UniProtKB/TrEMBL annotation:
Gene source species: Ohtaekwangia koreensis
Name assigned to this protein: Lipoprotein
Domain of life: Bacteria
Amino acid sequence: MSRISLIVFSCILFSGCTRSSSSTSVSFYYWRTSFQLTPAEQETLALNEVTKLYVRYFDVALKDGKPIPVSPITFKDSPGKATVVPVIYIKNEVMLHLALEAEDLAKKIVTYIDQINTRYAILCTEIQIDCDWTLTSKETYFNFLERLKKVSNRKLSATIRLHQVKFHMNTGIPPVDRGVLMYYNMGRISADSLNSIYDPMIAKRYTGALKNYPLTLDIALPVFTWGMHIRNNKVIALLNKVDNAAFTNDIHFEMRAPSFFEVKENVIKIGRYFEKGDRIKIESITPDELEGMAEDLSGYLREKPQEVIFYDLDNFNLKHYPNEKQFFQKVSRYF
């Protein structure tokens, strides 16, 4: 019996692994362009009894004045018994385009999703749209969502930012079945010492409004780490999937403060050119911080969320969290 099979069998055998139907379940976002789970990712899903994955299918952007799909996913592995929710990221520029035909876009998105599902024998009963709409694009975006809901004949969810919760009288409530509160990326990307992924002081400016938000919400929490390439005190690039370990033992870099490195001499590293005097800022969320985020947020919610969705499932991200049994379930229990 494989290690993963043994884990699953043990959870069935011992009642301590049984979750009540009222529990907040654990899900993950999958944000790569090729679906292929590693053994570590499979183990995390098994240990935390994950039965649903929110998989980015493609982005939608403008090209020559027309919305087009960008970087569609391919499935090298089957998702198995996991329920798949296609997630479509739509750039706000699409919703700002004056000549946009909302119903035509809705039909094309559903057709493309169905083509992917047919090709890889995937069934889905929900679609999620990720779009950071603005006051200017609100009317077009909400019209698009209404048409997508009708055309797809599926449940529809949408991501919600904190500012869209606090100022919902102006930003509006998207016409979807459920929202997913993105409880991260709440600060501005900058060269200072603040963490743009999560800042508790910034969070407190918005969380008080959650009890008055009328849309049912699930929660998305961050488990990613990234870096910022800083030159002349300005961020010139984001460095995805980069942590302290990438620079700690490199003689070309010196840690000047926690999570800040200075470039000692010109060097090419991780496919980028760094000049002497440049700085790298690493931002992450520790396991304790993740639990603290969940505990703090739980006290502000109008109702218990059905799911906590962690962003995102990836070996690089998972290595920063305890390999203890059911760590992500532990976080979900704060709700």
